[in-house]
Amino acid sequence: MKHIELLGSISTLVLAIVILYSFATNPPVYERWNDAASRLIAPSALESGKAISVYIWEDLFPAMVALAIALLAFVMALVVLLRRE
Predict the structure, then answer these.
(1) How high is the pLDDT of residue 73?
(2) Distance, CA of 70 to CA of 27 (rounded, Å)
(3) Whole-model pTM?
(4) Using CA of residue 48, residue 49, residue 52, residue 57, what is the dihedral sign?
(5) Distance in angstroms (rounded) separating the CA atoms of residues 62 and 10
(6) Residues 6+ apart with CB under 8 A from 44
């Protein structure tokens, strides 16, 4: 049962990272929408950084809190699993 719990914790953490990474970066579909993407997102690094920080600290703040809670739960589960041995 310990291995299944560890696998579940790791898969939850990986899924959270994938979801947040997809929100914080440009999805691959933007490569095909070159004209539309350039109108939506300015090519300068400053504008991209500003857009990502707005997503993370304003729009995705509840998701960031959820990720922190999931990471804390993962660490606690890992400690409990390692102490049982």
Answers:
(1) 86
(2) 24
(3) 0.37
(4) negative
(5) 21
(6) none
User: Is 24 within 8 Å of 52 (Cβ atoms)?
Assistant: yes
What confidence tens digit (pLDDT) does each residue in 31-81 have? Answer: 566 666 566 655 676 677 777 777 777 777 777 778 888 888 888 888 888
Residues in the chain: 85
Cα diameter, the chain:
58
What are the tens digits of pLDDT across the range 14-41?
887 777 776 666 655 555 666 665 666 5
Question: Among residues 19, 6, 18, 2, which one has the least CA distance to residue 75?
Answer: 6
**b (16+ CB within 10 A) / e for 59-75:** ebeebeeebeebeeebe
- Cα torsion through 62, 67, 70, 72, rounded to 10: -110
The residue whose two tokens read 């993407």 is: 37
